[in-house]
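pasting for ref
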Amino acid sequence: LLPIIDSDTNRRLWVASDNWSTSPKVVTHEELNLIGWVVGFSFESRDITPFKEFLKNLEFDSVAQKNNSLLKDFYSTFMNNNNEQVFMMMENLITSTDAGNVFSIQMAVNAIAQAVAKLCSNRNCTTPGAIQPWELLPELRNSTYEMNGTSYTFDENGDVNLGYQISLWSTTGQSVQTLNVVSMYHQQNSSLTSTNLKLSVTSKCSNSCNPGQFKKSAEGQHTCCYDCIECAENQYSNSTDMDQCYSCDNILEWAEPGSSTCKPKTPEFFAWNDGFAMFLLSLAALGVLVVFLVSFLFLWHRDSPVVKAAGGPLCQLILFSLVGSFVSSVFFVGKPMDIQCKVRQVLYSLSFTLCVSCILVKSLKILLAFQMKPLSRLYKPYIIVCFCVLVQGANCTWWLILFSPHKTSVINTSSILEECHEGSYVAFGAVFGYIALLALVCFIFAFKGRKLPEKYNEAKFITFGMLVYLMAWVIFIPIYVTTAGKYLPAVEMVVILISNYAILCCHFFPKCYAIIFRRMYNTRADFMRNVYEYSTKGAGSLGDLILPEVYKSAENLYTISKLPHLFPGKTEFKQRQQPTAPPAITQEKPRLSLKRTLSI
């Protein structure tokens, strides 16, 4: 105990076994105050008054002395050899005698004596060696004997039905009292009877482990000495002093380190009430509203040159496809379902393919009118649009049949991410790559027709619109590949909105501005003058059309024939407005010589 007294500042409860529980020489009264409390367990002692009376009645040079060598040695130490001195020494001997040890010795002597008597009842014990020591043990086991009128029994384990007395060491300020019996343990019924216990002590060397912890016994220590360790992640303990933690259901539940219960995992998806989702949905709704307004404006001015030069009915197809594209973005929000995963990609791919196909036809129309006359026979606008959309439809059908997009769940630590799996990224890339290919062809046609008449030339708008689309989707690819989580659908949704607004801003807003705010330029005469100016830039003539100098006055309005795709209503226009007659001349009007006709 001395190293502990020197190093440990915490008072503890010490449990003393019977071999030192009654020894007052283990610690001093000062050390007892430092180490804490000592509870001693010893065999129950009974009355040893006969033994004490025996000691008191011993006289000098008595018969007992002569028959006991121990007493003979004890008396030989006295100088005067008188009875008074012997009496005083016997009083000291009685005071220092351990009653428990005396009673135990009495029990042992009586038990052996009675066992020997039983053995000798069946044999002759007068001869030396009649009883061997090893014969005593079976006789003592499961035997009953009496001492001072009380019966005692040894069980099969050799334990006597005596019980234990529990003593709490105390100090009087000068010495340590080890025989302060405070409780009795009765072996017969395993009960505990307290007699003089006034101390409340928790007999633990470690505090109880709280829920969310488990006990881990310290190496080399008793099992009641342990450390409290927090349960690991996804494990829990729901009561105190648990020996181990239980595991949560890793699919549906989770737990933080040191948890006393499992929590259900939160489903995670791009929800309708998400702030970013609400912002994107607002942009989509605004886009649909703008498309309807533009469509109404184009229908109201469907006979104006601006609308006819922009494509006429093709503009309505483009606007219709933009509505479908805006609507497809709505399917990227909310809890994913299998049908939702299929519809959103197919609807967008078909809608935007229709949009890009119409823009492709528009750019091809002007290019054939002014630069590619030999290919004008191939210009079948609606056939081209239908062919492009059918090819995309075949791609989508192949995608849906073989690698259909579907709902999937990704198990995270504390949540379940619900998202759409595209089925096959090769099919996904093929569908969107086809749209990119059409956009690239549009860009090439627009670049090739960049020097055509300004009123018909949409090259800069088509070029810018297709560049915005291509750049948005090029940026989308690395972001889509490296992004994970509930905001992954928002990435594609943003790119769709950017593409749609790029088409609106580049193809329709300039036309709306011209229709509403520049009505003086929205006339047939202004468009024809623009064609004439384009034709006379290089050679001073309308293409290769040879005219007298008098017809080249800017004040005259020339009639450009055979341009039905540019001016579908030219006959009606001629009836409303006749060209100004050329000034009178004396010589005969020369015949026009056509080397090239500006028509498709």
